[in-house]
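In keeping with the milestone schedule agreed at the kick-off meeting, the structural modelling team has produced records for the first pair of proteins. Each record is given below as a sequence line and a structure-token line. The laboratory manager (R.T.) confirmed that both were archived under the project's standard naming scheme.
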Amino acid sequence: MAGDGDRGAGEPSLVRPYTLTAGRTDAQVELALEAAVGVVAAVPPPRWPSTDVRCQILALCARRPSVAEIAAHLSLPLGVARVLVGDLVVQGYVQVHATLGEADTVDARRELIGRTLRGLRAL
């Protein structure tokens, strides 16, 4: 799963999406579009080139973005982002955080909805 060269943020990828996922269309784990994804700190970083899309996802996950935000930031189709994030979860590099619980405030719910909508609009 190599990256797609030296493209800048927001530029369309020249690599076909199925190449990034080895033809897979389903994530190995259940991932909601609004699910926050964070880096697992105890795991040593992989030795992938910085241009590898997986490295780019890991760099974004330091801010705990949603799956939709990852797709938007990297100009990836949502399905491709879900497969790649799912791979990183299975490999132990990232973890998916609960989106909302019973104790969350109305403001937290609005913020989540807003972030998800911004990510989806950016796609």
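The second protein of the pair:
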Amino acid sequence: MNAFLLLPTPVFTAIALVVVVVVIALVAWALQLMQAATDRREFSLMLAGCMVCSAAVGLATVMVLTFTSPVRLEARGLTAPELESAGVSLDAIVLPWDDSLFPRLGES
């Protein structure tokens, strides 16, 4: 198992808070770049602000996927064991070409 999964909960909380602060700082920087682009009428600053904002969104997405992954939750004991084998069974679905349930004409 990955050592990252077995870190204590306070460490994970500290890492998550640092990442949230970084995301907020990136969004604030992107807004400043976009404001400067509007003031100076420079399109390149607007593109830079969009790139910084998309980086913040990507970082937030990776953080959410990392901290709420099924492996992470399983390592913490937060998933029910019966949910691990849950799935959809196709045994109850009758297909039109499945002739095992419907006898052919002339057969009884």
